Amino acid sequence: MKIIIKKIAVAFLFVMLFNSCSSELDTKPVVEQSFENLLLQDPNAAKGLLSRMYATFALTGSNGPGSSDIVTNDAGESGFLRGIINLQDLTTDNVKNRWGDDGLDQLTTTSNWTQNNKFFRYLFDRVYYTVPQTTNLIIALQNTNVSEKAQYISELRFLRSLAYYYMIDCFGKGVLVTTENYGTISPLPEASRTDLFDYVESELLAIENDLPFSNEYGRANKSACRMLLAKLYLNAEVYTGVSRYNDALIYSNKVITEGGFSLAPNYLQNFTADNNTSPEIIFPLIADALTSQSYGNTTYLVNASMNADTMPISLFGATDGWGGNRATKAWYGLFGDLDTSTDARAQLFWRAGHTYEMTDYKTWTNGYPSTKFRNSMFTGTSSPTSFSSTDFPMFRLADAYLIYAESVLRGATSGSSSQALSYVNELRARSNASSISQSQLTLDFILDERGRELNMEGQRRTDLIRFGKFTGGDYLWPWKGNSLNGVSIPDTYKVFPLPLSALDSNPNLTQNTGY
Predict the structure, then answer these.
(1) For residues 364 and 310, is the Cβ–Cβ distance under 8 A?
(2) Does the domain made of 42-289+392-505 have the CATH classification 3.90.180.10?
(3) 222-252, pLDDT tens digit by residue?
(4) Which of 161, 213, 366, 424 has the maximum number of C-beta atoms within 10 A of its C-beta?
């Protein structure tokens, strides 16, 4: 049940065992007593500690929405999920933010990126909070006889790999904290993108068979592991210079054929407050308006896209409209004429009182707010709340379908072009969009369909880089390079700069080229 993990996640272990990191590359967490001692005294604490590690991706801190695991002046903006959305979506063609907070303008205009931008630091710090903590707990569990410890350790290795995945994707380098070098006093050496890739791949392959096919809602299962492998392999050519599309297809196919998931009958079921009932979501980050409040989870996705000045925000289950994020025509333009489109996904934009063109990204009424994520129920009724109860679908079956299709188009030999077409048309039929023919199924079409299906799910920047459309001037979007109609940006921007604080903490780290 959805509520189980949530209740554990707010247990006393939050406060007792974890405090904010004072340095991004510290590998020893500050604890009141060791994990080993705690587990010896209370073996049942293992599940609570595991839940705490899941919570690092969904919540900002251990003591409510005003707390943060990392050093920040604003806990709400420091969450892992909020960081992923800021770096993966605001920097692209689909969503722009109008607040102009320190560093946000750099993201929303994809320009003038610096090593002092706090939003780069937040995600970097999150990774190096989660990685040492999971590693420490793995070591502690290895020295106990806790029931189900093998599965708990596998889940922790998955979470550590998930954190590292964002280091690979966003920064392209870092340090590699493992159970073998954990607690090393000397600064760890710099690990290259390939080093990190190889480690994550080996970890996921090692735990694939140990994870169960089904698990409690909100916990990793075999399909979550396979989806992360599929996404790693899909981007392997960017990350390592060696394409692994056949492997991407193999693992996406395992998810599709062995995972037991099915497409939700209605697309919107994946983005509402009762989306825990969707048969499509493989791995969610859990949110709850009462028991796991956070400004860094889907509360951000919902509230930042709402504003009572132009919208009836209660219709979407919100009481607070922050008036920050709006989609651009590069996103809703993917559906053609919104007045005549039959695609249900095309209707998830609020248009009344807003302009199609975003001539000023700091003006709320420029661009259409996305109503894709909302805090209202898909079935039944609910009362609007300040915080969101909508879980974030980090992995869902639709993405596996699109990975399969893209891999076929990129030359994977173990797939079928007719099956790829069938998967894409299943997605389109679900949203009442017209089916396409085999000749229409091209890589350009796949990129556009990923935008229609997956935008605002923390994937767009990665997709555009893989398709060669993020940097350079071949593909322009509103405010790319801080220009109304978009301008070319350098290849430097394929990775983010390492935060200055990280470079100061570890002299072995070097800045990414161009920053």
Answers:
(1) yes
(2) no
(3) 999 999 999 999 999 999 999 999 999 999 9
(4) 161
